[in-house]
Design a protein that fits this description.
Mean pLDDT: 82
Strand content: under 5%
Shape: extended
Oligomer: single chain
Order of helices and strands: HHHHHHH
Amino acid sequence: MPDDAVFWVLAVTALASGAMVFRFDSMARATYALLLSLLCVGGLVLRLGLDYLGVVVILMMTIEMSIMALFMVMFMMNPAGLLPMSMLHNKRGAAAVSAAVFVLLAAGILLAPWPGRRGKPDDDPTMALGESLMGPHMLTMMTLGLALFATIVATVVLATGRGRYDRFGDDLRARRPADPVRPGARR
């Protein structure tokens, strides 16, 4: 009985917060609603006994949403994404495209010749999933992680208008910057 209650609380919270993503009119609130929805989905996956996959979902979504919030604060003209803004454009066209894609995907699910099961399930599905995900693709995952980190660093460097070399010149050990622009003044 308590397990059922936990399942229903997580499921209803995931659906409600997922729906709120489309109801909120600020990027920050939509981001946190999406994070809550995905955390509940991770909890449901944990509840199904897939510990590895559930922890991966929770960690990935938490880090992803944190990075998204960080970029939102850094680059949006709307301070921290908290001011109201419309995130819906061309509502009728988007609804028509969404309905067409849904019908196409549902038809694909129903009409595709799915392969039959071969063999029996592994005794430890978590271990099998981990080896399947990370075993042969470890180099790809490491390269992708390095590329993403380099992209984040390059984006921050490019977004910084005035770095310490602009303020101090070549001598970074100076006590006071020889900055021609006064603090707080805009270029």
